[in-house]
Design goal:
It contains 17 helices and ten strands. By secondary structure, it is an alpha+beta fold. The chain is extended and about 130 Å long. The relative contact order is 0.08.
């Protein structure tokens, strides 16, 4: 830690001790000029909440530049380069990775197709259409305004001038991502567009009903068929309007022979019913439910939402990034851009441990496969790649025998100490040791006589063991029954 003198020399305060020497390098705005704005009819409707919910959930997915194993199935390591920093930390000077993906998904929903344009990059040539090797340092989201065979015209923010500009960029290096739900959300007669039209009609009706108009009919006590009577009726109408506008409390007077009928009653229509039906159909097609928006969805609903809504969008981003930003050489070196969603994020710790134990204990997944699923680095332990149950003792190599643990027979005899006396326990232990010695000798003899038929030899060994076991069991049972009967007679005496 620096001493007080060194700290005193290097300490500054932004408001004190020096003049403001910053030079403004561009125009100033009251709002962020780099942020994409919704179309007006989307921003004012309930659709904006759908866009935001899905965009936030997609942004919670982690994208990484990784190196895969030989089978391109499991991740070996994360590549710490500028591309990985763009995907995980800072895509550009104005946005974090989360803000970037939220902006990208919302713009994709609003436009149907977006372009992720490399802005700062390292390359041997400024024209990325002429090279396959380049390093991306920053990217921006752009709207596509024109399509060409090998290029696209995009409207993108220029962080040097502070304005949005239209530039032509090659398709070869620009990630062009289309909404996976384009036919549901962006087609002219899609479910979402029909819902938007109905919601706009409802908004217009509400604005008309709340515009401040009285919608009155004034019935005069005379006929207005002649021109003179029409002029007199018009003057009467204007007189009532002037009274209402000029009065502090909006009060006017009429003649006793005049009648006023109010028409601003609610008009019955089925617009709201249509909006509810269209919204329910849209939710079903997107895998959304009311509980997801409220945060009360159960595990099955969240799994359906993740698999049907979030994963297709994340896959579209990852696949296009792999296709445009990684060369063939990089892909042959098992480099890839992968997304990882923690499946146990909302699962309690106790359940996570139970799930991992069941998958490994039943030899469904190895430890490294399980670690790869949850986005963790594989272990270097050789056992981590094997389908084994670590809770059980594994078989030894051929030619090795496992000694019988000491105390195992005494444990069994202890559980039945009320039924067998100490002499019978010793006899049983000696018999088991004899059987074990015979089995080992039999196996050794079988190995030495390898010239004989192997199957016949094993059958003979098994038959001899079974016969000896059966005889000894019968002997022990008969001894126990006779001994137990004598003890009962003595107790009775």
């Amino acid at each position: 830690m620096a001493n007080f003198a060194e700290r005193f020399k290097r300490s500054w305060n932004v408001f004190m001790g020096r003049d403001q020497t910053y030079s403004y390098d561009g125009p100033g705005f009251g709002m962020r000029p780099d942020r994409m704005q919704f179309r007006s009819y989307n921003a004012k409707s309930v659709i904006a909440s759908i866009y935001n919910r899905i965009a936030v959930d997609v942004a919670s997915v982690t994208f990484n530049h990784v190196r895969m194993n030989e089978d391109d199935e499991n991740m070996e390591s994360i590549i710490k380069d500028s591309l990985n920093e763009v995907l995980t930390l800072s895509p550009n000077k104005d946005q974090t990775a989360i803000e970037f993906f939220i902006d990208a998904v919302q713009t994709m929903f609003d436009e149907g197709t977006i372009a992720v344009v490399p802005i700062d990059y390292d390359s041997t040539t400024p024209d990325l259409s002429k090279t396959d090797s380049f390093t991306i340092n920053s990217v921006r989201i752009g709207r596509i305004t024109q399509w060409f065979p090998s290029y696209v015209r995009v409207d993108v923010y220029d962080d040097n001038s502070g304005y949005r500009r239209e530039i032509t960029v090659p398709k070869k290096s620009t990630a062009i991502i289309e909404n996976p739900f384009y036919s549901i959300m962006n087609e002219p007669n899609s479910q979402l567009q029909r819902l938007l039209r109905v919601l706009n009609q409802i908004d217009r009706t509400n604005e008309q009903n709340s515009s401040g108009k009285l919608d009155l009919i004034l019935q005069l006590p005379y006929s207005i068929k002649s021109s003179a009577r029409k002029i007199e009726a018009e003057n009467r109408r204007k007189d009532i309007e002037q009274q209402l506008m000029g009065a502090q409390y909006g009060i006017a007077y009429v003649d006793g022979t005049e009648r006023i009928t109010q028409l601003n009653r609610a008009v019955e229509n089925n617009l709201w019913t249509q909006a509810k039906d269209l919204q329910a159909d849209l939710y079903n097609q997107l895998g959304l439910t009311k509980e997801i928006f409220e945060g009360t969805a159960n595990e099955a609903a969240m799994l359906n939402y993740q698999s049907r809504t979030i994963e297709p969008i994340a896959s579209a981003f990852a696949m296009e990034f792999n296709r445009k930003w990684l060369s063939k050489t990089a892909r042959t070196q098992h480099q890839a851009i992968r997304y990882y969603k923690d499946p146990f994020k909302l699962v309690p710790v106790g359940q996570i441990a139970d799930i991992a134990d069941k998958f490994t204990r039943n030899e469904i997944l190895s430890s490294n496969e399980l670690r790869s699923i949850i986005g963790r680095k594989p272990s270097n332990d050789p056992k981590a790649d094997q389908l084994i149950n670590s809770n059980l003792n594994q078989a030894k190599e051929p030619g090795m025998t496992s000694p019988v643990p000491s105390g195992s027979v005494s444990d069994l005899s202890g559980n039945s100490s009320e039924m067998m006396d100490s002499s019978r326990i010793q006899n049983a232990q000696a018999w088991l040791n004899q059987i074990g010695t015979q089995s080992v000798d039999s196996v050794e003899n079988g190995e030495e006589s390898a010239k004989l038929d192997h199957s016949e030899q094993l059958d003979g060994i098994v038959a001899d063991l079974l016969d000896s076991v059966e005889k000894e069991i019968d002997s022990i049972i008969s001894d126990y029954l006779s001994g137990g009967g004598e003890e009962n007679d003595e107790n009775a005496e």
